[in-house]
Amino acid sequence: MASEPVVIAHRGASGERPEHTVAAYERAVQQGAQFIEQDLVPTKDGHLVVRHENELSDTTDIADRAAFATYKRTKVVDGKTVTGWFVEDLTLEQMKTLRCKERLEPLRPLSAKYNGQYEVLTFAEVLRFARILSTRYRRPVGVYPELKHPTYFRSIGLATEEMLLKTLQADGVNLRESRKNRPIFIQCFEWEPLRILRKQTALPLVFLAGRTGVPADGPSRNDNRTYPGNIENWVRALANARKKPDTSLYPYVSDGDPNVVTVPHNREKFVMQGRLNGVRLAVLPAPAKPKPVAKQAKPIVAKR
Please, what's the b/e burial string for 225-262 (b: 16 or more CB within 10 A of its CB; e: otherwise)? Predict the structure, then answer.
């Protein structure tokens, strides 16, 4: 087993500051996190912003803004009917007028004290802020973005996979390198978006999976197989999307029992870990070193 865990701040120090704000991210780094995690959703004009979901009333003050009263909608997102205000109906300029608030106020009263103080961040801003934090705290601070509902967004003309790659490139990330870049992992609960990404980047990918159910993009692929039982097949197929064996694909099981998932393509084993005060813990592969390596268990955390 790896000697030390890697600490990934899930949406920042979300127990103490509103999720996905500069304060939540910096507080997490102060507490020792090596990665800050982002949930990515697109604006109407094609900018990725960091919000827990595309419906905004739980994480911003949009419901209290008279200017947005007429934007309230009812939509079906990944098979679920949702009523509220949606990021894909707003431009970035409109998003920047909103202020963040705590999503789970009764559970996180300390965080709720900071409601209304922070604006919504773009992913590009988070990448720049991660560099600032790396300089400020004199150690690398990685990013761990998750594409939320990418198949739904693609169906309405917002291809978040391409937006993500363009944003990374604009920030100087070499998409063809997996080890020489700043620490970056890309994650998603859906298979097809990861396949699209795998053909365009060598950056490490994380396939998220729930305890039960079918990935949201399953019906569009005529694939009704459920997870976690089919993780091996999906990850193997993703690995085969490249010309050479791929060792940068990691399954990551959400809300499950701590079962071991064996992935034959790279003969690694992954088990789940827990969460501590809103910060999730994971042991992730370190860069290869010229020494004999035995099989190692890789703890991957539960997501929610």
Answer: eebbebbeebbeebbeeeeeebbbbbbbbbebeeeebe
d(CA 299, CA 167): 29
Residue 134 CA to residue 9 CA, distance in Å, equals 15
pTM, entire model: 0.80
Bridge partners of 270, per DSSP, are 261, 298
Q: Which CATH architecture has domain 6-53+102-301?
A: Alpha-Beta Barrel (3.20)
The pLDDT value given to residue 242: 56
Residue range 6-20: mean pLDDT, rounded: 91
Q: Give the Å distances, CA to CA, from 272 to 3, 282, 295.
A: 16, 8, 17
C-alpha dihedral, 175 to 178 to 182 to 185, nearest 10°: 90
pLDDT recorded at residue 259 = 39
Query: 13-39 burial, b if ≥16 CB within 10 A, otherwise e?
Result: bbbbbbbbbbbbbbbbbeeebbbbbbb
- Enter the tokens of residue 7: 């600490």
